[in-house]
Amino acid sequence: MFPINIGTQYIRGDMPVVRIDPQGAPFKELAAGRIQLLAHTDLEAHAYDDSELLLTGIEGEVVVGNPGRSAVRIGPGACVMVPRGELFTLANLAEQPATVLAVFSRSDFVDNLPRPRRDREPAAERTLHAVA
Fold it and tell me: Which band of pLDDT confidence, cut at 50, 70 and 90, is reported for residue 54?
């Protein structure tokens, strides 16, 4: 097993998207990323031409928009799929930061996403924790 920690604390200076699946994990077709939006921020319209995307709310509420069409609000546990190449926006309209888990189909862009800087725990202290 390869446990993943989806931290919700915003790290200043880092881009809002970081790859969180562990290096060496056996994902051949998928990659996981964390998207963090500070209060009252948005990401302009963009598309991932080589990746499909599943967004799942972790903390706060994010508006996922399709310019000129519709918008969906996702909170903790809610999901939205973005097809390959489809233009979309992300916005956090709230007073608190918001975090979204992004699961991408693999592509060169995704393979080059930065990973968060972490202090590694000693192997003896790494444990799995059940989350209800």
Answer: very high
Contact yes or no for 111/105 (Cβ under 8 A): no
Cross-strand pairs, 102: 33, 55
Closest residue by Cα to residue 51 from 112, 102, 89, 106: 106
pLDDT in tens, 35-47: 899 999 998 999 9
Question: What is the structure's pLDDT at 57?
Answer: 94
Distant-in-sequence, close-in-space partners of 102: CB < 8 Å, separation ≥ 6: 17, 32, 33, 34, 35, 53, 54, 55
